[in-house]
Each structure stands twice: as structure tokens, then as C-alpha cells.
Write a structure and sequence with these properties.
Number of strands: 9
Number of helices: 5
Helix content: 25-40%
Radius of gyration: 16 Å
Largest sheet: 6 strands, mixed
Strand order of the largest sheet: 4-3-2-5-6-7
Distance between the termini: 26 Å
Mean pLDDT: 93
Strand content: 25-35%
Low-confidence stretches: none
Shape: globular
Bound molecules: inosinic acid, magnesium ion
């Protein structure tokens, strides 16, 4: 606990500590560096949840990668997906014949990434892989697997390290389970 201590009062518990995140991100960066050796992938961060993970991860990848961002929404302020995906900000780089690595904060139902993968494949990407910080396999609604992930987590609503509830808690350095009283009263 530190300067963010106030935010911690809304958590039931800390699920993944910053030290463990840092180790996992470093290992993941090394794997990606090996797997993409000799190539120049376009690394696509999904705004806003993936930004903290993304900025740490790309600094652990020793490749001449290119950076891109997309913003999609399927949630609003609720804690469950609506199943409807909307692209709010699209790519600028042409992905035709390129290796695309999508970086996401969490895969929950899988609906968002399932849609994005199809979208990028329609645009002629040579390869599309998915890299996620967290995976919540218990809630999958479509057949989707991450090519890379750091942590598998139980079916609980988590915040921190980029993940939000109603745009809050993204700046929490650890990942924690949000106390249900926070969203039940909303
Ligand atoms: P999916 O389409 O259901 O896989 O939704 C993925 C998106 O839902 C993520 O990018 C998050 O923005 C959001 N999401 C899913 N579970 C959580 C959670 O536990 N905490 C915060 N956001 C979540
Ligand atoms: Mg997100």
C-alpha cells in the first residue's frame, strides 16, 4: 500500500501483485521476441484497458515492432458484456500481409477479440495472434484462445493495472477483486 491506498479500500483483496506482474510481463516479452525473430510485427493495443500492460510489455520486446491502437466498446459501465462490439478508433497502418499481435487486458466472454480477429483477417493480415494479461476462461461465450497470456483468473470482477470499473481504478498498480458493494450500489 502506498500513495494509492485509498483505492485499495474498494477491493475485496489483491489478486496479482505488481512484482508478479512484472516478472510475468518480462517472461512474455522474451517469448514474443523469440517467436517473432526476424519479423516486424504490428503490436495493436486495445484502448483503454491494455495501455498499462502494453507500455510495460513492448519495452520487454527486443524487436523493431510498430505500435498501433484500437478502441472498441462492448460494455458501457456494466460488469457484463452486451455482446455488441463497436469500433470507436480504428487502425491507421495497413495490416495487409503483416504480422499482427493484439494486446488486450482481459479475455472474458471472448466476444470482443473474436470480432477483432475476424475484422483484421478480413483486411488481409498475414498472421494474427492474441496476447492478454488476464484470462477468465469460465465465462467464454465463443471459441477463442489466447496465444499468449500471463494469468488465468477466477470468475470475479477485477480492476487495476489498466482495468477499470466505470473508468476508475486503472491507475492501481496491482490487480484486485473489486468489492461487489461498489457495483451493486450503482
Ligand atoms: P469480452 O468481450 O467479454 O471478452 O470482454 C473483454 C473486455 O471486457 C475487456 O477488454 C475489459 O474491458 C472488459 N472486462 C471483462 N472482464 C473484466 C473485469 O473483470 N474487469 C474489468 N474489465 C473487464
Ligand atoms: Mg478492455
Amino acid at each position: 500500500m502506498d500513495s494509492n491506498a485509498k483505492l485499495y479500500q474498494d477491493l475485496d483483496r489483491v489478486l496479482v501483485r505488481r512484482e508478479d506482474i512484472a516478472v510475468a510481463v518480462k517472461q512474455l516479452g522474451q517469448r514474443i521476441t523469440e517467436d517473432y525473430a526476424g519479423r516486424t510485427p504490428i503490436v495493436v493495443g486495445i484502448l483503454k484497458g491494455a495501455v498499462v500492460f502494453y507500455s510495460d510489455l513492448i519495452r520487454e520486446i527486443d524487436l523493431p515492432l510498430q505500435t498501433e491502437f484500437m478502441s472498441v466498446s462492448s460494455y458501457g459501465a456494466a460488469t457484463r458484456t452486451t455482446g455488441v462490439v463497436k469500433i470507436n478508433l480504428d487502425l491507421r497502418l495497413d495490416v495487409t500481409d503483416r504480422d499482427v499481435l493484439i494486446v488486450e487486458d482481459i479475455i472474458d466472454s471472448g466476444v470482443t477479440l473474436h470480432y477483432l480477429k475476424q475484422h483484421l483477417s478480413d483486411r488481409g493480415a498475414a498472421s494474427i495472434r492474441i496476447c492478454t494479461l488476464l484470462d477468465k476462461p469460465a465465462r467464454r461465450r465463443v471459441d477463442l484462445k489466447a496465444d499468449y497470456f500471463c494469468f488465468t483468473i477466477p470468475d470475479e470482477f477485477v480492476v487495476g493495472y489498466g482495468l477499470d470499473y466505470a473508468e476508475k481504478y486503472r491507475n492501481l498498480p496491482d490487480i484486485g477483486v473489486l468489492s461487489p458493494r461498489i457495483y451493486q450500489q450503482a
